Amino acid sequence: MTQAARDQRIGATILELHNISLAFGGVKALSDISFDVKEHEIRAIIGPNGAGKSSMLNVINGVYTPQHGDITLDGVRFNKMNSRRAAEMGIARTFQNLALFKGMSVLDNIMTGRNLHMKSGLLAQAFRLGSAVREEIANREFVENIIDFLEIQAHRKTPVGRLPYGLQKRVDLGRALAMEPRMLLLDEPMAGMNIEEKQDMSRFILDVNEEFGSTIVLIEHDMSVVMDISDRVVVLDYGRKIGDGEPDAVRSNPDVIRAYLGAGH
Ligand SMILES: Nc1ncnc2c1ncn2[C@@H]1O[C@H](COP(=O)(O)OP(=O)(O)OP(=O)(O)O)[C@@H](O)[C@H]1O
Fold it and tell me: 221 and 199: one domain?
């Protein structure tokens, strides 16, 4: 898709962070941060080590409650998001330290992402009543489509722990996609990957955004890998926002250059 076509796809603002501040004891992880996310965009949050990226992601999905500021999601304003509400509102995430069940197969790991969509109760599932069986078949089909989409068919039955790291990250993305998220939060999706794996992951992120229509917020330490795929980028440094805009503008922002040079990048 060309950038012009992508720009056309981008819709209204769906998430707004207003003046978020978060401290751990005396450490200010986030100081007065505001930015927004528009429907269907790929929004990156970048910054050197300790800049506050993970904290920001954890505020968005309700793991951390900021001391100041609030969040507006679909026009509803919260000062306290929680993980359950975030999931119900269609926010799914991946983790930097993979949260997969290493002994379970690729298929079963991705199936765990369907839990929120299971309507029949445990009893119906235990006795395999008609509705539960139909539901399981539909969920299974959904998961098989994700497996095809992520090109991991050959590994469907393989325990996740036996796969190379790059493929495990892809399974983690599949698990999040199984939740049919409206917004996907990706926690350093390219960390620890070789160049080829990074290119593959970049392509999958673009494809997910295009084909599933998910809005994507991703945090990344290495700015070079996100510039090509992001519509807009927020830059954090020591818990403050020092840049926000399209990749070209951010790349030539003197404060951003200074922060990255200062951090030895
Ligand atoms: N649970 C916590 N308890 C205490 N301090 C924390 C906690 N989480 C983060 N911090 C501190 O908050 C600051 C921001 O950390 P954060 O992990 O959000 O940064 P980051 O940009 O994600 O860094 P990295 O790229 O290294 O993952 C750091 O000084 C960190 O030590």
Answer: yes
- C-beta separation of 31 from 240 below 8 A: yes
Predicted TM-score of the model (pTM): 0.89
Q: Which atom of ligand 1 is nearest to the CA of 64?
A: 1
CA angle 140, 142, 145 (to 5 degrees): 110
pLDDT confidence tier of residue 113, bands split at 50, 70 and 90: confident
Token output for 69: 């500021």
Question: Contact at 8 Å (CB) between 10 and 41?
Answer: yes
The ipTM estimated for the assembled molecules is 0.94
Ligand 1 nearest-atom number relative to CA 30: 14
Q: State the DSSP code for 155.
A: G
CB 105 within 8 A of CB 158: yes
User: How many structural domains does the chain have?
Assistant: 2
- 169/118 Cα distance (integer angstroms): 24
192 and 75 inside one domain: yes
Q: What is the mean pLDDT of residues 181-188?
A: 94
Given 159, 180, 201, the domain boundary residue is 180
Please name the residue whose Cα sits nearest to atom 5 of ligand 1: 24
Q: 66 and 196 in one domain?
A: yes
pLDDT surpasses 70 at 120 = no
Residue 147 makes CB contacts below 8 A (sequence gap 6+) with: 106, 107, 110, 153, 156, 174
Asked which of 124, 149, 180 is the last residue of a domain, the reply is: 180
The answer to whether residues 120 and 62 belong to one domain is no
What separation in Å is there between the alpha carbon of 77 and the centre of ligand 1? 26
CA 52–ligand 1 middle distance (angstroms): 6
